[in-house]
Amino acid sequence: MLAPDDLTALGLTLQLAAATTLLLLLVGTPLAWYLSRSQWRGKVLIETLVALPLVLPPTVLGFYLLLAFAPQSPLGQLLNSLGLAPLAFSFGGLLLGSAIYSLPFVVQPLQNAFSAIGERPLEVAATLGLNPWQRFTRVALPLAKPGFITASTLGFAHTLGEFGVVLMIGGNIPGETRVASIAIYEHVETLNYGQAHSLSLTLLLLSCVLLALIYRRQRVAAL
Questions:
Q1: pTM, rounded to two decimals
Q2: Is 63 exposed, middle or buried (0-12, 13-18, 19+ CB in 10 A)?
């Protein structure tokens, strides 16, 4: 049985995962489309930056994001001049940091899905008089639907297990930045293994379900 504080942390984690996935789909879709279509040699630099969170230690990424979100940073001063709260140790900071950390888990499946479409369907659509926007919305997006399902599931699941980045950026503020992974760490530190086990098992089951959905979808698509 989860304690009330753990339920709050789990709810905040699910809220963060959903918001992060939505943000990444909005940002990642045009980025993935550009990367799949562009012939510019320099796009490898963009692909490198997108994939960087895959190899960069989360604490390193979290540290530099914390410096960028600090009140005395250029971004922090800009937000202060606009009358906005600083991003460090806030849900907004968690959202932005999670989006950066999970970016490759959404962009890469979408890029692969767009690349798999090939040129032929788009050329046929062009001969039928569809403009570039119509070719994208009426042809590319429907054909890339499996990629969107994979990207959404991976982005959501990856956010569930974030620890280093959210700890560096958000700290451990109950009800605001205390997500499930941080709650588990706190339980272990205080030798409360029973609550750590309950919350860990909940995240484990959620992750298994999400991964099972991905593999089931891929198997159905392959038939």
A1: 0.88
A2: middle
